[in-house]
Amino acid sequence: MPRPAHGALGLAFLSTRGLQTVCLLVAMSLSANLISQLINANLAAPSPLVGMLSVVCFAVLYCAITLLLYWDHQLPLLPTAAIDTLFFVALMASAIVVGRPLSYLSCTAAAPAPTVVADGNVYTITGRLLRERAAYAAPVDYAQWVSAGEPGACMQVKAVWGFGIALTIMFVFSAALVGFIWRSMRGGGRAAKSEPA
What we know:
By secondary structure, the chain is mostly helical. The protein has 6 helices and 2 strands. It has one domain (7-108, 151-189). It has helices spanning 7-40, 47-71, 77-99, 128-132, 142-148, 151-194, and strands at 115-116, 123-124. Strands 1-2 form a two-stranded antiparallel sheet. Strand 1 (115-116) and strand 2 (123-124) form a beta hairpin.
């Protein structure tokens, strides 16, 4: 089946949706990895990361469905623009909540000093807060966890935050593209109807 012929707007929509899907998959894997690390350390996952993971999972499904519908010439344009706007709002709120403690945090400056594991051969960097609360599954304050955790975890959270910001911009762009495609189709339909008369 041929690709829908919407010119540059259609190509921009397809490329934006593809880029959104890639960014969503990366943000989903980073968030899931961080939550898995916390659960393995017997810590409760922070709600900002769980919220970001939830929004991203729904957005991945939505992007896949809209790509298939667009390719099959069955994408409802106005509802798609509205849902893109809703995902923009959800991702913006998630990015703000995730990034609130990160905006002025330097992951290298916040890193704790290396500590030696009992056998003396393995060096690991573990946060003071994670060591103190590893005995029980307690809710950890998100800002304290980010600043006291491993520098790798801090960098991963910053990457999730960055992907969240990028996704908000891309969802605004895709909503505008879908709106322009709808307007061009609507204008073309009017022109076609007015020509025979």
